[in-house]
Amino acid sequence: MSGFRTLFYKEVLRFWKVAFQTVAAPVLTALLYLLIFAHVLESRIEIHHLRYTAFLVPGLIMMSVLQNAFANSSSSLIQAKVTGSIIFVLLPPISYGEFFLAYVGAAVLRGMMVGFGVLAVTAWFAPLQFAAPLWILAFALIGGGIMGSLGMIAGIWAEKFDQLAVFQNFLILPLTMLSGVFYSIHSLPPFWQKASHLNPFFYLIDGLRYGFFGVSDVSPLISLAVSVVFFLIGGACTLAMLRKGYKLRY
Question: pLDDT tens, 178-228?
Fold first, then answer.
């Protein structure tokens, strides 16, 4: 696994060298979301008998984990392809599994660091309970893994930064924003409640919220099962693209 360790270290070093941009900036963005929405809606909305600020925090944490895990693996691959430095990753005898684990592992680490940062700064503004800490950790890890895999798929598929932006702006961002970060799906009309259950990100956010407060819109076991299946599908697709060398070797 020496190839994995070296590639993982390279990917971690890549985002840590600009941590002010890759870690601190997303934390600040999440804090601004909390302050703005809490100021406007705190006295008007109560969900699951929770203050709106408290309800909002788990969603912001998971949203930050998902977006930054995706950004890490996708931006790394597209930059390597555009600059031509991807050849230095493909030439060494690194297996497809090591390649996958290194990129996804670094994406998960960045997502978790940002998520912890969001938790640290938002905990001052909302009472958090940590009802089931292991559920929090499980959903944060699986969410980062899912988005790390999707980031690899997007980075392999895209041939320029514009294509990657289309993938992120028209798929990842809408699915994240419409997954229940800022609202409970029970506040939606029946049709949109059913549509929300087709969004895999909803299960990640709902499961993480259960870990904090012990309340959720669906069973956490169902959420975990859906999340694991989605990760396995994403991982299988990524490994298939790596084995084929799709837009990497040719």
Answer: 888 888 888 888 888 888 889 999 999 999 999 999 988 899 999 999 999
The 3-state DSSP class for residue 249 equals coil
For residues 250 and 242, give the distance between their C-alpha atoms in angstroms, rounded to a whole number. Answer: 12
Q: Is the dihedral of CA 58, 70, 12, 138 positive or negative?
A: positive
The model carries a pTM of 0.93
CB 196 within 8 A of CB 202: yes
Q: Dihedral through CA 219, CA 194, CA 199, CA 40, nearest 10? A: -90
Whether 211 and 135 have beta carbons less than 8 Å apart is answered as: yes
CA dist., res. 21 & res. 27, Å (int): 10
Complete DSSP assignment for 90-149: HSS---HHHHHHHHHHHHHHHHHHHHHHHHHHHTTTS----S-HHHHHHHHHHHHHHHHH
Distance CA 108, CA 128 (A): 23
Whole-number Å distance between alpha carbons of 113 and 130: 18
Cα–Cα distance measured from residue 242 to residue 173, given in angstroms and rounded to the nearest whole number: 25
List of E strands, the chain: 46-47, 50-51
Residue pLDDT, tens place only, 105-152: 999 999 999 999 999 998 888 878 888 999 999 999 999 999 999 999
